[in-house]
Amino acid sequence: MAFLLGCEKVGVDFPTKKVFESVSLGVNEGDRIGIVGRNGDGKSTLLRLLSGSLEPDCGRVLKNGVVRVGVLGQTDDLRESDSVSRAVVGDRAEYEWAGDARIRDIISGLLSDVDWNAEVGTLSGGQRRRVDLARLLIGDWDILALDEPTNHLDVRAITWLAGHLKNRWREGAGALLVVTHDRWFLDEVCTSMWEVHDGQVEPFEGGFSAYIMARVERDRLAALAEQKRQNALRRELAWLSRGARARTTKPKFHVAAAQALIADVPPLRNELELKRMAMARLGKQVVELEGVSVSFPTKDGTKSVLDDVDWIIGPGDRYGIVGTNGVGKTTLLRVIEGALEPTSGVVKIGKTVRFAVLSQHLDDLAKFGDDRVRQVIGRYSRRTMLDGKEMTPGQLLERLGFSNADLNEPVCDLSGGQKRRLALMLILLDEPNVLVLDEPGNDLDTDMLAAVEDLLDFWPGTLLLVTHDRYLMERVTDHQFALIDGKLRHLPGGVAEYLELSAEADGQRGAFSRADKAVQRTQDASGAKQSEGETADQKAKLSGGEIRKLRKLMESNERKMGTLQKKVEAAQAEMNAADPTDFAALSELQKQIESYQAEIDELEQAWLEAAEILGE
């Protein structure tokens, strides 16, 4: 592996802080490195140092003379008056870039929904980020240095970017340096990690999961060393006082895999207990949407954002909402909390509901201005209950990673991650019973994300979460929903199911039609293959024989489902009448019920597919 870039004994000092001290690193061809660490420890500074935009105070940065480094900063330098096309491809003629398959793939992957002729100044934050990414990625670079590339991107764009970076260079070529708080992205793209802490950079082999394993082992060894030191001190004290050496034993540890590390860890959340506590605080009704539609006027008429949405949100429900940028997720949250009246439909909000909203822009912190953090939390004498423990504002702040020095900082001077953590703490101290979080993971490092997740695990109320961080989404919510074309759809398969649905909608996959699949399930294939892109006139295109086969399938499945349902009811009755101490019999009956139910689900799926093809 050829050396591309690195540094030797570099030091970086800021007026109030020493960021790096005698750091030596190297980047070789084929490296895919994720950079993690606490907010303010120097991750972005390290990227600037290696890319040449920041000079070290001591030491030197080493660079192969022919290496080309492409850098994506947290903010862009795009000109407001430029068109999207000019910002991405510059003055190149269309035939030049359109003839390059790689450039076409980047533009279609990131900018398919962006007006090619729109001015940059009119774009949303997510669209602008994708334009800047496309501008960088169409270049020919030996090294890409990306600082928070997933910020403001939706799940689909993040998934596309991960795939592009994995396949951008052939194996063993090119190099990637990426700073991001998105743990799924780190695991998907990176093969090694750098942890920035205490003025040093510590390398780890493997992706984010391997890094966490290594950190657990490192912390275990440190705890073991401290335990040995304490034992030695106790032995010396015992010898001095009693003249006899205390008996000692060496504890034996074995960490062979992640399962061994977490074997004795209890479930993340006691869902039944949290539901019970939420019921006590909220009553039975929280929010119910009935036929809710929202549309906004545009130059060309009206734009429908929500279309006849029905949704019941109950006490203790933990729901995540995914969707592309601009699809209407924030609009849906505003309707739920009563801040926006729907164009049609009814929103019922329970009498005991107390909303708390953490917005993307942290508007509620502006009122504190130059007030110091200590002054802000001093106004809260109320304690809050989390994980069965009563916590003061100071304890909660400490749990969210604030040090004593941070307490004296003005709120306006806090970093983005600190502001987000402070806003979350103030929300929890207000003791709401419905918590609405819009992109809570923005600006947080991986350690702080873990701390926030830990707090949310034991929060006893209803939680609604919008985020493009799929790890965070599936970690703290129990059910996920997708907002697609104004409709709300449940995702039993989580974010992965949403990505499959999106791929199908875009026609990015070829497959047998659902009619073919349904007929195949009855082993009576029609032999007619249809593409997924067929329109609503499918039924008209089916032959009479195919229609009869689909109707016969539906009738057959209805009879089978009825028979199986009777078997389920009979088995349940037998279970109720069985000896409750006969565990073997009860287990066998439960297996029968599960088997019957699985058959019913399969038949029902085939019935629904056939009915949809027939338009019934």
Summarize it:
The protein has 616 residues and is of the alpha/beta class. The relative contact order is 0.08.
Describe this entry's structure for a reader.
- The structure is a single chain.
- The chain has 616 residues and is α/β, with parallel strands linked by helices.
- It has 4 domains: 3-207, P-loop containing nucleotide triphosphate hydrolases (Rossmann fold, 3-Layer(aba) Sandwich), CATH 3.40.50; 208-265; 271-354 and 432-504, P-loop containing nucleotide triphosphate hydrolases (Rossmann fold, 3-Layer(aba) Sandwich), CATH 3.40.50; 528-614.
- It has a 6-stranded mixed sheet with strand order 5-6-7-3-8-9, sandwiched between helices. A 6-stranded mixed sheet has the order 14-17-18-12-19-20, with helices on both faces.
- The longest helix is centred in the middle third of the chain and has 35 residues, at 208-242.
- The relative contact order is 0.08.
- Mean pLDDT is 78; it is low at 235-266 and 508-539.
**In one word, what is the shape?**
globular
- Identify low-pLDDT runs: 235-266, 508-539
Q: Which percent range fits the helix content?
A: 40-55%
Radius of gyration: 29 Å
Query: How many domains, as an integer?
Result: 4
Structural class category: alpha/beta
Output the CATH topology of the largest domain: Rossmann fold
Number of helical segments with 4 or more residues = 21
Largest sheet: 6 strands, mixed
| The top level CATH class name of the largest domain | Alpha Beta
CATH superfamily of the largest domain: P-loop containing nucleotide triphosphate hydrolases
Per CATH, the architecture of the largest domain is 3-Layer(aba) Sandwich
